[in-house]
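Incident log, structure service

09:12 report received: a user says their structure output differs between two submissions of the same chain.
09:20 pulled the input from the user's history:
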Amino acid sequence: MNILLKTIFILIILMFPSTGNGYSNQAYNAFIKYDNLNITRSFSYNGFNIKLYAKSSRELNWLNSKTIDVIDKISIFYESESLSFCDKKPIEIYLMNQDTLNNKSIMPFLWLRKFPKGINGIYTTSTSHDENGSLFISNTPVRMTSTRVLVHEIVHYWQDMNCELYPSEAEAAKFEKFYFN
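09:34 re-ran on a clean worker, output below:
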């Protein structure tokens, strides 16, 4: 009985945020370790602080170049609108195994809300242990799928940082079309 109570206590600590707005460092560290995302790169680009996580240098280089390309193109896409940034939260982008992303026991903080089973990616600020923006992208065997998901989720980050934009799937789809044409 004592072991059961200790286990329940530990699970409660891991499942609830350590701050009012985010998840504990332990929860993030657990999936990073589980998925072996030990290759990282931090940099600033166009005023944004970005940290990338991947399993290999090859994946990290791909993620780095695609992220920069998307930021460049999204700047062009919104160029005619005079948008002002309300916030420039740092962004952390995790290129991870799709099974890990969809595993409710490894990623419980994503599954507190109702998401369809089998997601390929998601942008959120509500689960980050330090209130950064977090992008979780499936590293699919078809690189085009990973690219499409990255493009789509970066739009949501961009929408979140701008005062005049609202999170919109329709707007994300418009940018995807612009990006791939």
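09:41 both user submissions now match this output. Likely a transient worker issue. Closing.
09:42 reviewer note: The chain has six helices and five strands. The longest helix spans residues 57-77.
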